[in-house]
């Protein structure tokens, strides 16, 4: 639901005519889309269609050859942009959890707070504990990654990202590396975040999740957005044959 005052607010992310190639592999072929405050957008599409590349362009982990990426109105592709400040507004959760193996769950969640945001240790500790509680891991704060299940590690990764107070959370197939019985706990945490109003851009193959949680579903194929809209349309009643073919394979 968007009110008039909200539409006046700048979108959290605005992508305009984005092109990205690796050598002569033209991976993103003119992507335009917007994520508004509080929106949950799920990106679906076949393997190799450019979903991860798109997500990585949003925080300039990949540098596009053409087009603009605006984060809250600031063009992060502009060489004069203060990229670190823009990146601090974006939390990212990967398929592989990328935790620091030699640090406890708690310290995984405090280290960037103290080094990057210059928070005092006591404050960082309080925020980390609150976020570990939010993902259901209060009991595990002293555990090291190797002592945790994949689902627990991914929830630490989410708590770590949340501890930086991001304006936007990017998720790249956060449950794809998990054993099936561990997927539900991570999706439950993400569902809760969505209900709390977090702005989220999620690449996922979990169609039930996308259907239930997404405000909008974006279907990508061959480096373009083939269609986007409410999940009931894109997943429930797609207008394009390419979307139908993809959904027949994954549903
Ligand atoms: P998806 O996430 O939809 O599976 P990707 O964005 O990972 O797709 O990949 C899209 C295409 O870009 C693929 O052809 C892949 O091989 C290529 N690609 C992705 N990252 C790189 C890279 N760092 N170097 C070269 N090619 C890449
Ligand atoms: Mg990918």
End-to-end separation:
28 Å
Bound molecules: adenosine-5'-diphosphate, magnesium ion
Tell me the helix content: 25-40%
Major pleated sheet: 6 strands, mixed
Large-scale geometry: globular
How many DSSP-defined strands? 10
| Strand neighbour order, sheet with most strands | 6-7-8-3-9-10
Low-pLDDT sequence parts: none
Oligomer: single chain
Nearest-integer average pLDDT: 95
Tell me the radius of gyration. Answer: 18 Å
SS-based structural class? alpha/beta
Number of helices: 10
N-to-C SSE series?
HEEEHEEHEHHHEHEHEEHH
In terms of DSSP E residues, the strand content is: 15-25%
Family: Belongs to the ABC transporter superfamily.
Main location: membrane
Keywords: Amino-acid transport, ATP-binding, Cell membrane, Membrane, Nucleotide-binding, Transport
Pfam families: ABC_tran
Structural write-up:
This protein is an alpha/beta fold. It contains 10 helices and 10 strands. Helix 7 links the parallel strand 7 (168-172) and strand 8 (200-203). Helix 4 (105-115) packs across helix 5 (121-134) and helix 6 packs parallel to helix 7 (180-195). The two termini are 28 Å apart. The model has no long low-confidence stretch (mean pLDDT 95). Adenosine-5'-diphosphate binds at residues 22, 25, 27, 45, 47-53.
What tags apply to this protein structure?
single chain, 251 residues, alpha/beta, six-stranded mixed β-sheet, four-stranded antiparallel β-sheet, 10 helices, 10 strands, binds adenosine-5'-diphosphate, binds magnesium ion, transport, ABC_ATPase_HisP-typ, amino-acid transport, nucleotide-binding
